[in-house]
Design brief:
The complex is a heterodimer of chains A (277) and B (354).
Chain A (H helix, E strand, L loop, with lengths): L1 H34 L20 H9 L2 H32 L5 H11 L4 H14 L6 H11 L1 H13 L3 H10 L3 H12 L1 H16 L3 H6 L8 H7 L8 H26 L11
Chain B lengths: L3 E10 L2 E11 L4 E5 L6 H9 L6 E6 L2 E2 L10 E5 L10 H11 L4 H15 L14 H13 L5 E5 L7 H18 L2 E6 L2 H7 L2 E6 L2 E6 L1 H6 L4 H6 L6 E8 L2 E3 L4 E3 L8 E7 L4 E2 L12 E10 L3 E8 L2 E8 L9 E6 L4 E5 L7
Parallel strand pairs in B: 3-8, 3-9, 6-7, 7-8
Antiparallel strand pairs in B: 1-2, 1-4, 4-5, 9-10, 11-12, 11-14, 12-13, 14-20, 15-19, 16-17, 16-19, 17-18
The chains are: A mainly alpha (277), B alpha+beta (354).
């Protein structure tokens, strides 16, 4: 028995290690390429820290391109998008969770339905809408486009989480002296931090990594997000792989920091103990 | 403190009547119990007083003011519910002071009230803890504390002791009784437990099927139940019921018959009710007791200070209570006598007291 369990364990771990390598390898390659000196960009050398490693590519991407501007553009658009997206989803999810109104079930189903449509198909209608609103080539246009695309997912996540919070807590708050919104704001929201952070992270990463919509909506290079900017480095005859890799590495940092910071909010179980049990 | 007046309250839910024409007056400082089996509408009624449930028809007044359309926060009530409903992300002190902070009371006043309530409930040492660090009994104390600090006009309790184990429930029951004495508060208290109802209430309203079956002082409801349902619901162990007929000053059923006293006027099909304490098996003939009726002992239960006797007279099963010293055994035939002034007669059709 012990032998079999052991064999099973080994197999399982081997599979896990393989999966880790597949997911981590591209990241490591990217770092390796970003560190290579200019003359060895296309080398097939597999070492992680290449011979003659240098940070020159980082220096060049920061100094010779508008990288910092692109990063700033992305940061503004993504942050505002995430806050708006989460605020809308937090209130909409609450309505779907707590109130019965005509079309509440249909609404939820339709929201889910929108997730089935490939993003590319929505590109043209989205662009036409943004054009009519006169928001082409603006931050606002991007924010409008982004904050609504993650909405269905966020609403479902939050609605599901609210459903687990006992209504008696809100009723206690109502009796204690809050308004309906007060009960939501003071009781339900603080208890929903795990779901709120998941929704925020989802909104953030979606908007941060988005390329297609940005390509269509933004045309002025000074408004470019980093996804557009980095592709600028792809020349017709020459691609600056070193700078490309260095830039790619730099843009993962904000997302990484966000994940580290929000992990403390992701700890669930905060609702335990308020009611019986 | 304030009185609560319910006049002609009706609640229809999905075209299904839940409460039907309920009228009830709760005087200032009164401890009023709403008691009944689950689904009788007692919790719905309480939630209507709290403002958590809409009223289909009728009027609710608190302290003379009609509150039908006031939101809960403007009714100056406090509520304690079965599952405690403590805010999990706040400490005990924050839970208790939540309502006061919403009303922007001065900080020192809040602290004073929380301290005072914590003192009354002996939870001073718990003030810094969060709800999940508390036991069930402690949580219920905190929930009561949260109600006390508000100094509301009316306290509403919705089955507050139902989640506690038997011993703790007894303890808290006494605490709540003391609390009522010391605060002199108007309390509306919902329970399905008739022991709580009998022991706590200055008055009780027995509810069933969306109607108030009887409202009155516990002793009155116990000794003069208004109908068959109340008679069966209040009192433990439950009253015995014998269907039969009253005629010529006597009672007759297929299995037994005896003379009643002073009720010669009653005749026709009736249900006779008698509490287990009103049946004796070792009583000699005497004033106030019926003539003997033979019965066979089926089961004897010793409860320490008394015995429950399960009797059978013909096909009629009855429960009687005897002293612990009673020596009868299952299979013995005994002569049982009924205490005549403990006999209740109910109309067979209307189920009303005759």
């Amino acid at each position: 028995m012990a032998e079999r369990a052991r064999a099973k364990n080994v197999l399982l771990h081997a599979a896990l290690v393989a999966a880790c390598i597949v997911s981590v390898y591209p990241m490591l390659r990217m770092i390796a390429v970003s560190l290579r000196p200019g003359d060895r960009l296309l080398s097939t050398d597999l070492s992680l820290i290449p011979a003659g490693a240098s940070l020159a590519a980082y220096g060049r991407v920061l100094a010779e391109t508008n990288f910092l501007l692109w990063l700033w553009n992305s940061l503004v658009i993504t942050t505002v998008t995430s806050f708006i997206g989460v605020s809308l989803a937090a209130t909409a999810g609450y309505a779907f969770s707590r109130f019965r109104f005509p079309g509440s079930k249909l609404g939820l189903t339709l929201l889910l339905g929108t997730q089935m449509i490939p993003a590319g198909m929505l590109l043209l209608p989205l662009f036409l809408m943004i054009m009519r609103l006169g928001l082409v080539n603006t931050y606002l246009g991007m924010i409008v486009a982004y904050s609504v695309t993650s909405l269905p997912f966020s609403i479902w996540i939050l609605k599901g989480y609210y459903d687990t919070i006992p209504r008696s807590l809100e009723e206690a708050a109502l009796v204690d002296g809050t308004t309906r919104f007060g009960a939501f704001y003071r009781i339900v929201l603080p208890l929903s931090t795990p779901a709120l952070s998941i929704a925020f992270l989802f909104n953030f990463t979606q908007a941060w990594n988005e390329y297609l919509v940005a390509r269509v909506v933004l045309c002025d290079a000074s408004k470019y997000t980093w996804t557009l900017g980095l592709f600028e480095l792809q020349g017709q005859f020459l691609t600056q792989w070193g700078m490309f890799a260095a830039g790619s590495f730099l843009v993962t940092i904000p997302v990484l920091l966000l994940f580290l910071y929000s992990s403390k909010w992701l700890v669930s179980g905060l609702t335990l103990g308020g009611v019986k049990g | 403190m304030a009185s609560v007046t319910l006049s002609r309250i009706t609640k229809v839910y999905h075209e299904h009547p839940v409460l039907d024409d309920i009228s009830l007056e709760v005087a200032e400082g009164e401890f009023m119990i709403l008691v009944g089996p689950s689904g009788c509408g007692k919790s719905t009624l309480l939630r209507m007083v709290a403002g958590l449930e809409e009223i289909t028809d009728g009027e609710i007044r608190i302290g003379g003011q009609v509150v039908n359309h006031l939101p809960p926060r403007d009714r100056e009530i406090a509520m304690v519910v079965q599952d405690y409903a403590l805010y999990p992300h706040m400490t005990v002190a924050e839970n208790m002071s939540f309502g006061l902070r919403l009303r922007r009371l001065p900080k020192d006043e809040i602290a004073r009230r929380v301290d005072e309530a914590a003192g009354i409930l002996q939870i001073q040492s718990l003030l810094g803890r969060t709800p999940r660090q508390l036991s069930g009994g402690q949580r219920q104390r905190v929930a009561i504390g949260r109600a006390i600090v508000r100094k509301p006009k009316v306290f509403l309790f919705d089955e507050p002791l139902s989640n506690l184990d038997a011993k703790l429930r007894e303890e808290m029951r006494v605490e709540i009784a003391k609390l009522h004495q010391s605060l002199g508060a108007t309390i509306l208290y919902v329970t399905h437990d008739q022991v709580e109802a009998m022991t706590l209430g200055s008055r009780l309203a027995v509810m069933n099927g969306g109607l108030i079956q009887q409202a009155g002082a516990p002793a009155e409801v116990f000794s003069r139940p208004a109908n068959h349902f109340v008679a069966g619901f209040i009192g433990s162990p439950t009253m015995n019921f014998i269907p039969g007929a009253a005629a010529g000053g006597g009672f007759q059923s297929p299995d037994l018959s005896f003379k009643l006293d002073g009720r010669n006027s009653v005749s026709g099909p009736v249900v006779l009710g008698v509490r287990p304490e009103g049946i004796s098996v070792d009583k000699a003939a005497g004033e106030g007791w019926s003539e003997p009726v033979p019965a066979v002992i089926e089961v004897v239960e010793l409860l320490g200070y008394k015995r429950n006797l399960y009797l059978k007279a013909g096909d009629q099963r009855l429960l009687a209570v005897a002293d612990a010293s009673f020596g009868g055994k299952p299979g013995d035939t005994v002569s049982m006598r009924f205490q005549l002034d403990g006999i209740h007669l109910f109309d067979k059709e209307t189920k009303k007291r005759l």
